[in-house]
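Researcher: I'm preparing a figure for a lab meeting and need a structural model of a single chain. I don't have an experimental structure, so a prediction will have to do for now. The sequence is pasted below. Please return the structure as tokens so I can convert it later.
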Amino acid sequence: MSTYGPLLKTPGVGRVIAAQLTARFPFGMLSLAYLLHVEHVFHSYGAAGLVLATTSVGQALAGPLTSRWMGSWGMRPVLILTSLVALVSMGVIAFVVMPLWGYVVVGFIGGLAVPPVQPAVRTIYPKMVTSSQLTPLFSLDASAQELIWVAGPVITTFVATQVGTVQAIVLAMVFLVVGGAWFIGSPELGRVRIPRSKRAFGVVLKRPSVVVATLTGLLLIGACAAVEASVTSVFGEGSPNAGIVLAVFAVGSLIGGLTLGHRPISRNTLWTRMSIVFVGLALAVGGTNFWWLCIALVIAGAGIAPALAVMFGSVSATVKFSDTAEAYGWMGTGQLIGAAGGSAVAGFLIDSHGASGGMMVSAVMAAVGVVLPLVTKRWLPDLRGRDASPIPDTEPVIIPT
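Model: Understood. Here is the structure written out token by token.
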């Protein structure tokens, strides 16, 4: 805490972290809320899964594009536009009775309009703190986001089952309005302007560090998605044990991020932190006992936020400031693809080999996630004693707010 205490005392840091978490909180609720609501309407999990799939596809397609728009139009206009479209799409799904294709289309549009809060905040972080504080800040941010995935599904399930699925979506809309307004109104968004990139869309992927971070993030989040599917299959929908085990998984990530976040980043840091994830998931393959899974997954979780922090720091230090938002958008797209692929492959293996088959998928993805940054470590920056801020091509611009 000697690292994070002074960091949180830096003007604006605590407020911006809280605002962006609140703005992103609805998207930790929405997948489950849509699943329960569409299933309630059509009495079909297949229909609900189709809506979720198209929503995720829209989000994956839009991530790098809306992030890049922030350099052309400014952060606030893009965030306001996407928030409004996302809000309308959520309202339509909640209140309008449509044929299935209508939900699919609206879900896809809503996915396209997910506000690029994560790329925005990680773009302005380097302008808020000193270079020595940037790596701990990325780690604190990656750790804090676990609160979204712990509390979001719990709140959604409670509201949807005790009150109604419409009300669960409405609650997500309230978080979007409050969190979005809070984040968009942050003075820091007015003080920092992302310059228009001079490079064509997608050229940032020629940066090897961006490719390594994107692919490793895909594997990491894919492994996590496979774990979620496997744990749910072990305990069934009616047992609270699945939620408890997954909460332990997320708490492990939170603890790991806070514990390792202040440590310097070298070229070996990413693969070593991914090794922690692999060890825990390999242990999870060995049994489905409640306590065994808790122990295995708290170990695996301890590597997740620290690994994500390395990815964010490596990308930040190796791209120009004008390209950071797009780079983070591509990372987000990779993680969405990983989540969809991990869930799908794990589902097939669970059907044929039980929960251990799904856990095997997660362990294999984590193993590849160790090997990839190990064999490509020369492409990753050594940030020990170095500034992790983006390559400058502009300075913060003070404009009226």
